[in-house]
Amino acid sequence: MHALIYLPGFNSGPQSEKSQQLQMAFPGLQVAHYDSWHPQQAYLQLDTLIQAADDPLLIGSSLGGFWAYQFASRLGLRCVLLNPCMHPERSLRYAVGKVTHYYSGETGVMTDADLDQYPTYRVAPHPRFDPMQHCTVLHEQGDETIPCQESVDNFSGRARLRLIAGGHHRFARLDIAITEIRASCASR
Question: InterPro entries under this entry (predicted)?
Answer without folding.
Answer: AB_hydrolase_fold, UPF0227/Esterase_YqiA
